[in-house]
Amino acid sequence: MSLLFSPFTMRGLTLPNRIVIAPMCQYSAVDGCATDWHVIHLGHLALSGAGLLVLEATGVEPQGRISSHCVGLYDDACEAALARVLAVVRRHSRMPLGLQLSHAGRKASTKRPSDPGPVDTRAWPLVGPSPIAFADDRQVPAELDRAGMDRIVAAFALAARRAARLGLDLLEIHSAHGYLLSSFLSPIANHRRDAYGGSLENRLRFPLEVFEAVRAAWPAERPLGVRCNGTDWHERGITPDEAVAYARALRERGCDFVDVSSGGNAVTPIPIEPGYQVPYAAKVRAEAGIATRAVGLIHDPHQAEAILQAGQADLIAMARGILNDPRWPWHAAEALGETLAVPSQYRRAATRAGLPTRDHIPVPPAQYRSPSGAGD
Ligand SMILES: Cc1cc2nc3c(=O)[nH]c(=O)nc-3n(C[C@H](O)[C@H](O)[C@H](O)COP(=O)(O)O)c2cc1C
């Protein structure tokens, strides 16, 4: 049996295979509320046969959204909108569903990638660890004071409670790509002279405070992970050794997995090639002793299997590859000589690897039967 199609258990959740659909912003929300686009987008991915689908970076407060078109989980309207989307998806798929909690920090308030004009929409003032703009054409963020940090820690925790109520199976915290927590970790963005800047121990402090608050708010039986940078690709940025230290500190606080990504704290070239971030995941896995998810141009099933076989990661995440080919898991199963359950409605189109499934029968898992009950 291949490792890619073997199950993987974290706390009370067993993923049927190691293929994870990475979080992907859709810039399709209205006032933080998920829309019909999310029903279609998440619905079609939930029929793909992957082992886990992670919903996009979701703002824990309105100012924490990357753009005004991004999903939030900061009020009852956002929560109700996501509940509607999840109910439809759940009626037709049993794929475990995760969500990425995020605060965009000094990279918030942007336009949609498809919109013309300047990146920074100036829709709201930004906050960050230090008053240093991400780029020349971006706002200078206000340096977060203790009250602001407390507000954001509380917002992460409240959003985690909302996510628990929604019956999500897994949660991850975005601390990569230069967004707020990533910018606290990186000496490029963090020039503070208080207990939250300077030494590695100090730079870890705020992201760990957020992690602890979310772990306390999120049910103990459900897995919680973190997406972090293995490198900033910059001489003054986060180093792979610092990523290991962060992962160790997270593991000690009950973190179940780390997704190792990179970049986003500075405008700097990234040497992109297939599997370009895998060495960072492998280092974190080997030295921090935590389950690790590799991501970044892993689009070939044999490459994915080789990464797992070599012990470089426990899970494989993909974004662009599965947008391009939403049946990637079917094709990967065929390439690796595996079988995979596919919806019975699609059986006639499935590859030789496809098995019929009863997924279409609308029996949602227990936590979805009482949307207001679970998780508080
Ligand atoms: C459309 C799109 C949206 C993305 N949105 C997010 C996001 O919300 N959160 C995040 O951590 N990464 C996001 N990413 C990065 C991906 O999760 C992934 O790490 C990256 O694309 C590399 O993987 P790939 O080579 O398989 O695409 C996004 C990528 C794409 C293509």
Describe the structure.
It is built from eleven helices and 14 strands. The longest helix has 20 residues, at 146-165. The protein is of the alpha/beta class and 376 residues long. Mean pLDDT is 93; it is low at 358-365 and 367-376. The strands form four sheets. Strands 3-4-5-8-9-10-11-12 form an eight-stranded parallel beta barrel, surrounded by five helices. A hairpin with a 2-residue loop joins strand 1 (8-10) and strand 2 (13-15). The structure holds flavin mononucleotide (FMN). Flavin mononucleotide is lined by residues 22-25, 56-57, 100, 174, 176-177, 227, 261, 295-297, 318-321.
CATH topology-level name: TIM Barrel
| Derived structural class | alpha/beta
Average pLDDT works out at: 93
Q: Any idea of the CATH class?
A: Alpha Beta
Bound molecules: flavin mononucleotide
Largest sheet: 8 strands, parallel, barrel
State the gist of this model:
With 376 residues, the chain is an alpha/beta fold. It has eleven helices and 14 strands.
Write the layout of secondary structure elements.
Blueprint: E1 8-10, E2 13-15, E3 19-21, H1 36-45, E4 52-59, H2 76-92, E5 97-102, E6 127-128, E7 142-143, H3 146-165, E8 170-175, H4 180-185, H5 200-217, E9 224-229, H6 240-252, E10 257-261, H7 278-288, E11 291-295, H8 301-309, E12 315-318, H9 320-324, H10 328-335, E13 340-343, E14 354-357, H11 366-369
Parallel strand pairs: 3-4, 3-12, 4-5, 5-8, 6-7, 8-9, 9-10, 10-11, 11-12, 13-14
Antiparallel strand pairs: 1-2
Helix pairs in contact: 1-2, 3-5, 5-6, 6-7
The structure holds flavin mononucleotide (FMN).
Residues 22-25, 56-57, 100, 174, 176-177, 227, 261, 295-297, 318-321 line the site of flavin mononucleotide.
